[in-house]
Amino acid sequence: MGRHDGQTSNWSTNDAPGATTVSFIHKLAASDAFRTLFREGMNLVEEAATYLDGPGRQESRQLRRPVALAYATESMRLTTRLMQVASWLLLQRAINEGEMTVAQAWSEKHRVRITEQSVACEASMFEELPPRFRQFSLKSLRLQARVAYLDRSMAVANGFAEAPTCSGVATQVERLQAAFGR
Asked: Whole-angstrom Cα distance, residue 115 to residue 151?
């Protein structure tokens, strides 16, 4: 059995110093789990597009003006988010199928920004949006968070980024302590 050394995100194959590490993120990116994520993501893109072009368009016409504005804003964000996720998934699939190297994909990656978002409108306004639209929005946010996590993990595993040294909470605590002179 391997052990986790508590200092890095790599798992050692044995306890000997200098032991070979196994990158589970690379295995995940080429696994059935990735293929499932790919299908889920592409299906969500297709279903959301069909909804927005059909029933969503009809439903948006029936909304009161401020809610219709929130719908328009959120639908643009939804579309952008799904296109970013689809682009990332397609890049990763190209790597998995040997159509691109990791370095080639990384050079193309500047065109694909995976940044986690949240809903832009207030919660009360979001609740007034059509239920099916809210479902698409929330599903896309969860999918984007999963892809963003994989993207960060793969960047670290491939040496394109450094592993975070501490959590966001720890950083905020340090800032508070510095601000209050502790």
From this structure: 10
Full DSSP string of 134-163: HHHHHHHHHHHHHHHHHHHHHHHHTTSSPP
Structural contact between residues 114 and 144, judged by C-beta atoms closer than 8 angstroms: yes
Q: 124-180: per-residue pLDDT in tens?
A: 899 999 999 999 999 999 999 999 888 888 777 767 665 555 556 666 666 666 666
Q: Are 46 and 84 in contact (CB under 8 A)?
A: no
d(CA 122, CA 136) in angstroms, rounded, equals 17
All residues at 6 or more sequence positions from 85 whose CB lies less than 8 Å from its CB, including other chains: 41, 45, 114, 140, 143, 144, 147
* SS3 (DSSP) at 79: helix
Q: In angstroms, rounded to a whole number, what is the distance separating the alpha carbons of residues 9 and 121?
A: 36
Q: Are 111 and 90 in contact (CB under 8 A)?
A: no
- pTM for this structure? 0.69
> Could you read off the pLDDT of 85-130 as tens digits, one per residue?
999 999 888 888 888 887 787 776 656 667 666 676 788 899 999 9
Domains along the sequence of the chain with CATH = 29-179 (1.10.8.930)
